[in-house]
Design brief:
five-stranded mixed sheet, single chain, elongated, alpha+beta
Length: 400
């Protein structure tokens, strides 16, 4: 989505900024404004009035600790591109009038760069590293409003809800993870209101593109390093095999095409991979080797109902036991009896609750079971995953 300039074409910046301040005074005061707020601004002001924020300022600022800032920086995929964009920003001829801010998806300011004179003015507003600049904390502003709208935002002078921010413009672009589409944070460029220039929106958009391209490049380089480190093991591996990172992104695939990502592996947890069946991930440095179980290395389950339900899992030389709920034990027993044909959500609801009208509850229980035990249970229909064999023990002396 492209940036819409806060200045109508052909309008004088100083005159328009004064009109926006008058508009703010009129709308908040309940009189007829000289011009109507833009829909974006109107929506935000409605949210602010509903929250009870003070127009005159004085809304309490919230900040995280320096330790939390460091933690969030380290965890942010944007960190690899921030330094490069700061250099691009500093090379801009008008950088002495601008402040660059990068916030995360919670509105926490993680990085800030700009001339000392602009930083001092920002300090007076609490516009500092570690500060939370969501709408709920500081009213209508480009960072918080871009988070709320999930869209680029440019605000000028009286379009800010707090009067203390009327001396500023702010231009913000959301940054998304190119791998997942998740919102990662916001790039914001701010400065004195009367220094706003149409090129500032393009500069913020450049930062967004740079960060998203850099995140994708780092992702591809990480997968390539993982693939190379696994080459000796892959050379000695026959049959289908995957090499994936900790989040399930595929660095290498042989035997079956599985797409770009599988469910994230976890230690001692079976994984159901389409085309592979049941797998037990094997730890690699910075990733996992995922192979289907051969007929001699199937996943063997023993569901013990003789006391508190428990499940013994044996996969090759690896095994573990964990307690499970009575409901999860009931589901596993039902799927065991259903065999390869499995059960529809309706049939499972009927078996668990006595009627087919509890589809949401039945699906939720299976979802929780899969989160606890990994890919032991397959879906559509619900059934034990291929390669999984279950033995049901009712007491110490009898099994079925």
């Amino acid at each position: 989505m492209s940036m819409h300039s806060a200045i109508p074409q052909g309008r004088s910046l100083p005159d328009y900024a004064r009109d926006l301040v008058r508009m703010h005074e009129a709308v908040i005061g309940g009189s007829r404004p000289p011009l109507a707020p833009r829909p974006l601004v109107s929506r935000s002001w409605t949210r602010m009035l509903g929250m009870g924020l003070a127009v005159q300022g004085g809304n309490p600022r919230v900040s995280v600790t320096e330790e939390e800032i460091a933690h969030r920086r380290n965890a942010s995929p944007m960190r690899s591109a921030v330094r490069e964009f700061i250099q691009i920003f500093a090379a801009n001829p008008d950088a002495s009038h601008m402040l660059l801010v990068v916030a995360d998806a919670d509105g926490v300011i993680l990085w800030r760069a700009g001339a000392s004179s602009v930083r001092r003015r920002a300090d007076a507003l609490g516009f500092t590293e570690g500060a939370v600049w969501t709408e709920a904390q500081v009213g209508t502003n480009a960072i918080g409003t871009a988070l709320a709208e999930v869209a680029p935002v440019e605000l000028l002078s009286g379009e800010h809800f707090e009067q203390d921010q009327h001396a500023w413009y702010c231009t913000a672009c959301p940054v998304h993870d190119p791998r997942t589409g998740d919102l990662l944070g916001i790039i914001d460029i701010s400065g004195p209101a009367l220094t706003l220039h149409p090129a500032i929106g393009a500069l913020a958009e450049t930062g967004r593109r740079l960060m998203e391209v850099q995140i994708w490049r780092c992702h591809q380089e990480h997968l390539e390093r993982l693939r190379r480190s696994a080459e000796p093991l892959l050379a000695a591996t026959s049959g289908p095999a995957l090499v994936v990172d900790d989040h399930g992104w595929v660095a290498h695939s042989s035997g079956v095409a599985v797409g770009a990502r599988i469910p994230a592996p976890a230690a001692r947890q079976t994984l159901a991979v389409p085309g592979y069946g049941a797998c037990l991930p094997e730890r690699l440095p910075n990733g996992w080797l995922v192979r289907p179980f051969s007929r001699g290395r199937q996943v063997l389950l023993e569901l013990d109902l003789s006391g508190t339900p428990s499940l013994q899992v044996q996969a090759g030389d690896t095994g573990w036991r964990r307690l499970i709920t009575k409901r999860h034990a009931e589901i596993l027993a039902l799927l065991h009896r259903a065999g390869p044909a499995g059960m529809s959500a309706e049939a499972l609801s009927q078996a668990l609750f006595g009627d087919a009208g509890h589809l949401v509850a039945a699906r939720a229980e299976v979802s929780r079971l899969r989160r606890q035990l990994g890919g032991i249970v397959a879906t559509r229909p619900y059934r034990l995953t291929d390669g999984v064999q279950l033995t049901l023990t009712q007491n110490a002396h009898r099994g079925s």
